[in-house]
Amino acid sequence: MGRRYYCDYCDKSFADNPTSRKVHLTGNAHLQNRKAHYDAFRDEEEILQDDKTKKPCRAFLSTGDCKFGDRCQFSHLSHEDRNRLAEIVRMKQLGAATGKTNTEDNVKNLLMEWVDKRSKKLKLDNVDNSTGNSADTSKTLRPTDCLVAVPEYTLASCLVAFPSLPPSLLPPSKEEILKCDYVSWG
Question: Rounded CA gap, 143 and 108, in Å?
């Protein structure tokens, strides 16, 4: 059997000779699959600019489905999708104008909001429902208290028979895990 050529876009293999490869690479199915692949990585602004020139797809608007899918020449974006993309583009432009990435700040803010909500919920859960007395709510929770659920590790049963194991094979205690300094990767 001769050499085979595999096309990642089409998920197809065929005999590797110049004629077969040229026929495949210039074929309509390959060109559409390649376009669909690269369209998945397009920027929001580029998607909006391209969508402005298209008319809405009647089949997609009426049934929610189009037999042409991503290869349809008409627009499949709803008003909500367009508004969402426009908002993303506006936020990116605002971030570029101020010189800072808005998404990084957004993630940090969302994470801190979640930690605050979680700590409040844990404080409420500490309330003893039977007596109505609250547990020690004066203690403030750290973000690591809410984000890290520390499991209890035990030694594997196959290692119990060995008397002196190196520290790398011993399970860590909860205290060791909580005392670790976690380095933030940049």
Answer: 12
Helix (H) or strand (E) holding 14: strand 12-15
Residues with Cβ within 8 Å of residue 108, at least 6 apart in sequence: none
pTM assigned to the model: 0.41
Angle in degrees, 0-180, between the axes of helices 79-98 and 44-52, rounded to the nearest 10? 130
Map tokens 């909860």 to a residue.
Answer: 174
pLDDT in tens, 113-167: 888 888 887 777 766 444 455 444 445 545 455 455 677 888 888 888 888 888 8
Q: Cα 169 to the chain's mean position, in Å? A: 33
Is the Cβ–Cβ distance between 44 and 88 less than 8 Å? yes
Per-residue DSSP letter, 131:
T
